[in-house]
Amino acid sequence: MNPTLDPLLHRNSLRPNQMQEPAPSDAELQTILRAATRVSDHGNLNPWRLDVYRKPAQEKLVATLLDIWTQKNPDADTTLTAKKTGFVARAPLLVMVSSRINRASSVPRIEQILSGAAVCQNLIIAATALGYASCWLTSWAAHDADVKQALNVTPDDEILGFILLVIPRAIFAGKTRHKCEVGKLQL
Fold this sequence. Notes:
Elements: H1 5-10, H2 26-36, E1 48-54, H3 57-72, H4 78-86, E2 93-99, H5 109-129, E3 133-137, H6 145-150, E4 159-166, E5 181-182, E6 185-186
Antiparallel strand pairs: 1-2, 2-4, 3-4, 5-6
Helix pairs in contact: 2-5, 3-4
């Protein structure tokens, strides 16, 4: 198999409750992040920001989300509350990717956001190539103004995703879940 195509053809997203240790090492994480930022970037603006959360920073992030969620949803049951806030703590490593729009540039805002989305995709592919599984989540937290403020993301910028990185459980090894049709060619 082609070493570039193999991670693309065999990756699957894990749900947060399917995650287990370990996380990428610091050296592996640096490689993943370097690969993540090698994306198309009209104007060479680097219109993104990457924030890495390991334990105990994730616990602080969970507490922040829990506080904001419960203020806005005081009647939510505990199961829903745990689901909406606990995803952050399920993986041993989380990377938040947000936009950092250069407003002085003539490059359209959407192109800058799409460049950040490409960072998310490259991050996932690089992690897969190193043997890690991932889950790209946005959830309510990515779109909440109070969460953005708490995480120092400006109101005009976007949280593009929370990407959880882990070693995959063996049950996912070698399985593909997507099939698509291109013309009459079945993939």
